[in-house]
Write a structure and sequence with these properties.
The protein has three domains: 76 residues, no CATH class; 85 residues; 77 residues. Helix content is 46%, strand content 13%. The strands form two sheets. The protein has a three-stranded antiparallel sheet. The protein starts with a helix and ends in an 18-residue tail after the last helix.
């Protein structure tokens, strides 16, 4: 992104940067803030487009991350601009989730005392069982100084981040160690799938509401308790606060879950589910 582009922000970039300034209570205009970001957070993104950087800021705004303190930053690797969330940012996002109920770690050593693996268990207030992820040193360790000096700490971070992803459905951003591995990989080794965090369009939002209305017989305009509960669980499954924040690449998956709920209601003729697991779409999206 050039200096000229900084002075001529697109409407999307201007709105995104403006939202960031408002959220952080910064009394500056969008161009001034973007200039600061380009010399700090986005310093290593030469050639990136405004759309690339808007995606990074969208993730920052969605998860209340501070790019100035590098809780999130942009990183360019092999032609891709990646939103990178630092370790502190990952813990901040998890701690901010309303269903987060703590975590614990379990270390496994070999008979001679060498670290083998670390397991992280994440507890949710609405789950009976913890969600856990295990990372193995043999698969993760690199020859860098942090891994040589603090292998337990580094592996603990890896396990926690994977557990957070599984527990809360976080997607669309990476952690620093993953970024380093992408740089070391050849282009053929890289998953080039682009994660689209752009919210759904107004038309898609309307389509989801119509589908929910049809699934729960809301044509009379009345609000049903089971429909309200389902929408709450649907938002939780996709890690969003409002339905119109659903990433556009998750639209089809969300619509399918609503269809599953409609079929389940028709097949079982229930008014109010007795357990969480009875409603399709409750399991967090992968």
């Amino acid at each position: 992104m050039s200096e000229e582009q900084t002075r001529q922000l697109t409407p999307v970039m201007r709105a995104t940067v403006g939202a960031l300034a408002e959220r952080m209570s910064l009394q500056v205009d969008a161009e001034a803030l973007m200039g600061t970001l380009m010399s700090t957070v986005f310093a290593d993104t030469s050639g990136a487009t405004q759309a690339d950087l808007a995606l990074v800021l969208h993730v920052a705004n969605k998860h209340n991350l501070d790019p100035i303190t590098r809780e999130i930053y942009a990183f360019k690797a092999n032609g891709r601009v990646l939103p990178i969330v630092g370790v502190d940012g990952w813990y901040k996002i998890a701690n901010s989730h309303p269903q987060f109920d703590g975590l614990e770690f379990e270390y496994t050593d070999s008979p001679d005392g060498e670290l083998v693996s670390v397991t992280c268990r994440v507890f949710r207030k609405d789950r009976k069982h913890a969600i856990e992820a295990t990372e193995f040193l043999s698969e993760c360790q690199k020859g860098t100084e942090p891994w040589k000096k603090w292998p337990r700490r580094m592996l603990r971070h890896k396990a926690a981040i994977q557990a957070f992803r599984m527990a809360f459905g976080f997607a669309g951003f990476y952690e620093p160690d993953e970024a380093e591995r992408i740089i070391e990989s050849s282009p053929d080794d890289i998953d080039t799938t682009v994660v689209d965090s752009t919210p759904i369009t107004d038309e898609q939002y309307t389509a989801l509401n119509h589908a929910i209305s049809a699934a729960f017989d809301l044509t009379d305009g009345n609000i049903r308790a089971d429909a309200t509960a389902f929408v709450g669980r649907l938002k939780e499954a996709f890690g969003i606060d409002q339905l119109d924040e659903l990433p556009s690449d998750q639209f089809d998956a969300c619509l399918a879950r609503i269809g599953d709920a409609a079929k389940f209601r028709n097949d079982n003729a229930f008014d109010q589910p007795k357990t969480d697991d009875e409603i399709p779409g409750y399991t967090p999206a992968s």
